[in-house]
Every structure is written in structure tokens, then in C-alpha cells.
């Protein structure tokens, strides 16, 4: 071990600019207050920098010295000056190349907890798997409330394909997080290898029906999300989604014979539904069939998720029918969409109290918390499911607004009981309210909860931010939301991309930025808090009817203490939410 001295504790940007860093975590004040809006790159691990394991370098130099000695013996004696010149010339380039390679393999992708400070770290590929398992695989007794939990037993399957695919995804995320092109090159090499191995499995009639083959296809699609930088990446992701659908058609109901297979289907279904509502296409029949065969125990996680999935099926069917001209009557379409919206609002009406969430007010971190309030949930998975429900409502209201425009564009006015302008105002209000609820979930999804920690708590697994990415982007790009919300979402998307290594989030941020710059997003007049108070007054009359037991009394107590906080709590829409003032 070689002692390198005491390193600087400042963040990377302050060290580069040679200015004093206050070392506040997770981001220093110098970066947060910068006019150019730069992101704080974070801090180095001090212990890992103080000592360096140079065993490989020393061993390599000894080997080079031995080679030169053997070469001198083979060619006869040489004078000392020639020997010195040969040593400095012939070995320097070779030695420098090898040292560069060793440093790249050992230091570019270490992460907290991977190894003891100063000890030889695991290989690049091993670190990729460790990062992937730590951030994108969660376990839960209920099949529906985890994410890729089937991969926790990947070693028992002895699948080299799954191992290589996980290495590719983990290295890709680390590469984006650390802005390291060498890691990305390693990730793409592992991806190409996993692609070849999966292709060989698909050509085998027996292996193509195995759960691990289906899982590998899903991981390949996940890699395209982690490295998404253009429309070609999304096209490749769609191709992998279509591959998953083809495998499900091949396997049929046998897919659900094992717990492992059921978990694989649930994970594949979430990605397939995401693809369907983004492209406005119908859900494949095999998804509907297998979804109906999943267990629906009352009040269980799977039952609640399946109920929400049923509404998404209907939304995809309606949007696809409107798009291909199967449904042409705007009034009938609006009626169907309103009926579907009622079903989504009343989704899981018999949910347990664990689905309640608490509103916490905190004005100390405006860059992290939008409009001084955020929601705390029982689990990150529940927060993600809530955001799927909210995104579904926004899609429904956007479709209603599009049908209202179709109705008003008719050469002859349609005589109906529906007031188009009144419905347009209601839809815009619902969109804005729902977008606020999505923004309020973001701090918790990223690990912030001031009730227990004055600073950011340990980050939540990156999978939950990834799970809510479509909803977060929708909150910033949909109709009618304030410019301040769009800018907040823009900042959070960039943060998720850089800090969690999700390239798709950075692409979403770039698209949103271009829309803002080009003025392609519609504004709704009024400040967020004013709008929130108006919504609170309109909801107050029926609030006690839709909230869970006990929530209304808690809101009423807060209203006596702080009417503004109580109005804010009502705005954030929840069922059974509690209001807590903080900071």
C-alpha cells in the first residue's frame, strides 16, 4: 500500500475551480448557487484515495525487468548506457499502456460498499452486477410489489446469459453516473455478448420457453433504456418489447405455472403497457389473458395492481380506436373517457390504510421540493403505483381535451348536454392537480424525508425513480401546468439521469427543454398556491366522503392551527393523507 497524503474533501467542481467548498451533502452550496445551473458532481471517498494498492504495478515492472534481463542474455552483453536506454525506451510505452489498463479496470467504477478502502476491488463486471442488484432488484413476499425479484436467485439458475445481461445494465448505469466512456464500452461489449447468447437460446425450441430467456430479453430492453440517447434506442427497446410479446404468445398460460414465471410476466407486463400507452396501440390479447389468470386476493397488492391494469387496458383500447378512426363521435368518446376516469378515481376503493400518504411541508429545499410540500408513502413501490394511476388520469384528460377540440371543429355544432368549455376547464384543473401530486412524490422517491433526517437520507433504490419516470416527465410536459413546475421537473429529470445513471431521464430532460424553448407547452394562468387554495375550497365540501377513516379529523385539526397548510393538504388530492408541517 502506498500512502498518498490527505486529499481534498471538496466536491469535484470546487476542486477544479480551486475555490472553497462548504462540503454540504448531497450538493455543496457553491454549485447550487451557481448562475450556470451546474450540477454538483459529489464527493470522493477519502479513505479510498489515501491508500493505493500498487501490487499489480510493482509485479508488472518486475516482469518487464526480467524480460529485459533475458533479452540481454540472448543477445549478449551490452554496455550500461544501452541497457538503460533500452529499459527506458522499450518498456515505457508498454508499461504505460498496461498501467492505464490496470487503472481503468480497478478504479473507474468503484462504488460505496463494494470493497474495503485500499483493498483490491472486484472486477469491473462484478461491480456492474453488484450495482444492478443493489439498485434495480427488490424483494417482497407479494409478487407484484417487488421489481425483478426473480433475479435474486439468478445464481441458482446457473445462467451465464443472465449474468452477462446484468453486467451490461449495471455497467451502463455506472457509466452514465460517472460520465465514464470506458465503462460504457465495457457495457456495450457485455450487451453484444448477451445479445448473441440470447439469440442462440431463441433458436433452441426448449430454451426459448424457459423463464431465464424471457428475463434476458427484458434485461436487454432495460439496457436500451439505460443508454437511451436517440430514437434508435427507443426503436431497439420497442423491438425487445415485441420479442417479449412473441415469447409470451409462444408459452401461453404455462408462463404462470411457477412463481418465477409469474414474476417474470408481471415485470414484462409493466414494460409492455408502458410501450402501448406511449404509442397509442392496443394491448396484446396474451397480456389480457394472462392478466385475468393472475391471483386477485382481495386487498392484496396483486389485486390492486391488476385493477389498475384493467383501466390501462381500456385506455389503450380507446386511444387506439380513436387514432385508427374506429371511434369518430367526439361526444360518445368523451362519455367513454369520463366513465373510465371515474373508474380510475375509484380504483382500489377498498385499499388498506398502507396506501395512505402524509403531506409534509418544508420550505428549506426549493430545488428538491416543489412548492414547499412533498408526500411520504408507506413504501416506494406504493408511491410508484400512485404515479401510474396519476399518469393514467392525465392521459384520459388529455384525450378528453383533444375530443373537445374535435367537437368544436365540427362545421355544424353538435347539440349535447355537455358544455365543452366547462368540461375543458375541469379537465385542465384535474391535469394541474394531478401533476402537483406527481411532483410531490418526487422527493420521497429520491430518498428525502425531513421528518427523520435533516439532510437527504440514504438514497432509495434507483428502480423507483425509473418506475415513475413517465409520470414525472408527463407532469412537466402536459397541458396547463405552470412554468415553475416545468422547470422543477426539468431539474429533477437531469438529477435522476446524472445521479442514478438513467440515460432515458436525460433524454426526457432534453426533449422537455426543447419544448420549453420553442414554446410548445401550454400555460395555465395563476400561481400554484393560488390554484391549490381554489381547488381546496372546491374539494372541501366532499372531502370527508372520499377520504379514509381518520384522515378528515387530522386535516381539520391542522386547519385550526394553520389554514394555509390544511388547504395545501387538500389540494394534493390524496385519499387519507395526513398533513404535517416541517421546517
UniProtKB/TrEMBL annotation:
<keyword id="KW-0804">Transcription</keyword>
<dbReference type="GO" id="GO:0000981">
    <property type="term" value="F:DNA-binding transcription factor activity, RNA polymerase II-specific"/>
</dbReference>
<dbReference type="InterPro" id="IPR053175">
    <property type="entry name" value="DHMBA_Reg_Transcription_Factor"/>
</dbReference>
<dbReference type="InterPro" id="IPR021858">
    <property type="entry name" value="Fun_TF"/>
</dbReference>
<keyword id="KW-0539">Nucleus</keyword>
<dbReference type="GO" id="GO:0003677">
    <property type="term" value="F:DNA binding"/>
</dbReference>
<keyword id="KW-0238">DNA-binding</keyword>
<dbReference type="Pfam" id="PF00172">
    <property type="entry name" value="Zn_clus"/>
</dbReference>
<dbReference type="Pfam" id="PF11951">
    <property type="entry name" value="Fungal_trans_2"/>
</dbReference>
<dbReference type="InterPro" id="IPR001138">
    <property type="entry name" value="Zn2Cys6_DnaBD"/>
</dbReference>
<keyword id="KW-0805">Transcription regulation</keyword>
<protein>
    <recommendedName>
        <fullName>Zn(2)-C6 fungal-type domain-containing protein</fullName>
    </recommendedName>
</protein>
<dbReference type="GO" id="GO:0008270">
    <property type="term" value="F:zinc ion binding"/>
</dbReference>
<dbReference type="InterPro" id="IPR036864">
    <property type="entry name" value="Zn2-C6_fun-type_DNA-bd_sf"/>
</dbReference>
<feature type="domain" description="Zn(2)-C6 fungal-type">
    <location>
        <begin position="10"/>
        <end position="40"/>
    </location>
</feature>
Amino acid at each position: 500500500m502506498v500512502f498518498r497524503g490527505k486529499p481534498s474533501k471538496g466536491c469535484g467542481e470546487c476542486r477544479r475551480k480551486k475555490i472553497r467548498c462548504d462540503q454540504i451533502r448531497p450538493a455543496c452550496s457553491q454549485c447550487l448557487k451557481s448562475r450556470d445551473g451546474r450540477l454538483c458532481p459529489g464527493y470522493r471517498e477519502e479513505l479510498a484515495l489515501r491508500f493505493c494498492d500498487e501490487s499489480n504495478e510493482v509485479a508488472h515492472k518486475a516482469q518487464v525487468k526480467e524480460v529485459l534481463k533475458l533479452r540481454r542474455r540472448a543477445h549478449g552483453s551490452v554496455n550500461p548506457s544501452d541497457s538503460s536506454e533500452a529499459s527506458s525506451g522499450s518498456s515505457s510505452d508498454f508499461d504505460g499502456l498496461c498501467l492505464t489498463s490496470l487503472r481503468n479496470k480497478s478504479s473507474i467504477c468503484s462504488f460505496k460498499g463494494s470493497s474495503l478502502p485500499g483493498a483490491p476491488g472486484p472486477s469491473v463486471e462484478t461491480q456492474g452486477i453488484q450495482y444492478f442488484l443493489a439498485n434495480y432488484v427488490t424483494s417482497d413476499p407479494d409478487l407484484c410489489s417487488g421489481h425483478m425479484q426473480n433475479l435474486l436467485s439468478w445464481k441458482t439458475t446457473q445462467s451465464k446469459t443472465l449474468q452477462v445481461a446484468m453486467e451490461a445494465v449495471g455497467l451502463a448505469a455506472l457509466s452514465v453516473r460517472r460520465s465514464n466512456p470506458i465503462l460504457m464500452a465495457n457495457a456495450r461489449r457485455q450487451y453484444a455478448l448477451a445479445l448473441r447468447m440470447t439469440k442462440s437460446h431463441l433458436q433452441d425450441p426448449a430454451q426459448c420457453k424457459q423463464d431465464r430467456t424471457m428475463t434476458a430479453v427484458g434485461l436487454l430492453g432495460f439496457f436500451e433504456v439505460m443508454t437511451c440517447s436517440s430514437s434508435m434506442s427507443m426503436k431497439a427497446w420497442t423491438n425487445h418489447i415485441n420479442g417479449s410479446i412473441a415469447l409470451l404468445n409462444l408459452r401461453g398460460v404455462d408462463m404462470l405455472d411457477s412463481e418465477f414465471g409469474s414474476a417474470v410476466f408481471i415485470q414484462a407486463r409493466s414494460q409492455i403497457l408502458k410501450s402501448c400507452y406511449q404509442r397509442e396501440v392496443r394491448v396484446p390479447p396474451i397480456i389480457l389473458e394472462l392478466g385475468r389468470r393472475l391471483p386477485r386476493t382481495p386487498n392484496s397488492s396483486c389485486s390492486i395492481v391488476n385493477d389498475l391494469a384493467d383501466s390501462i387496458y381500456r385506455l389503450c383500447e380507446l386511444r387506439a380506436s380513436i387514432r385508427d378512426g374506429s371511434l369518430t363521435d367526439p361526444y360518445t368518446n368523451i362519455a367513454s373517457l369520463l366513465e373510465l376516469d371515474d373508474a380510475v378515481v375509484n380504483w382500489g376503493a377498498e385499499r388498506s390504510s398502507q396506501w395512505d400518504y402524509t403531506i409534509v411541508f418544508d420550505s428549506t429545499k426549493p430545488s428538491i421540493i416543489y412548492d414547499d410540500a412533498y408526500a411520504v408513502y408507506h413504501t416506494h413501490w406504493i408511491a410508484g403505483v400512485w404515479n401510474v394511476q396519476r399518469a393514467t388520469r392525465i392521459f384520459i384528460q388529455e384525450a378528453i381535451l383533444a375530443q373537445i377540440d374535435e367537437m368544436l371543429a365540427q362545421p355544424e355544432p353538435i347539440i349535447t348536454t355537455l358544455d365543452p368549455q366547462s368540461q375543458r376547464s375541469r379537465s385542465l384543473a384535474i391535469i394541474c392537480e394531478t401533476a402537483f401530486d406527481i411532483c410531490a412524490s418526487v422527493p420521497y422517491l429520491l430518498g428525502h424525508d425531513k421528518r427523520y433526517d435533516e439532510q437527504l437520507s440514504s438514497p432509495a433504490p434507483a428502480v423507483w425513480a425509473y418506475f415513475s419516470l413517465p409520470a414525472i416527465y408527463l407532469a412537466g410536459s402536459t397541458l396547463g401546468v405552470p412554468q415553475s413546475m416545468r422547470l422543477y421537473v426539468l431539474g429533477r429529470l437531469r438529477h435522476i439521469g446524472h445521479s442514478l445513471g438513467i440515460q432515458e431521464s436525460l433524454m426526457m430532460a432534453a426533449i422537455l427543454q426543447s419544448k420549453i424553448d420553442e414554446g410548445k407547452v401550454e400555460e395555465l394562468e395563476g400561481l400554484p398556491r393560488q390554484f391549490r387554495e381554489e381547488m381546496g375550497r372546491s374539494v372541501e365540501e366532499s372531502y370527508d366522503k372520499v377520504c379514509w377513516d381518520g384522515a378528515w379529523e387530522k386535516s381539520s385539526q391542522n386547519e385550526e392551527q394553520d389554514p394555509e397548510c390544511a388547504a395545501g393538504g387538500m389540494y394534493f388530492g390524496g385519499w387519507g393523507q395526513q398533513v404535517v408541517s416541517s421546517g
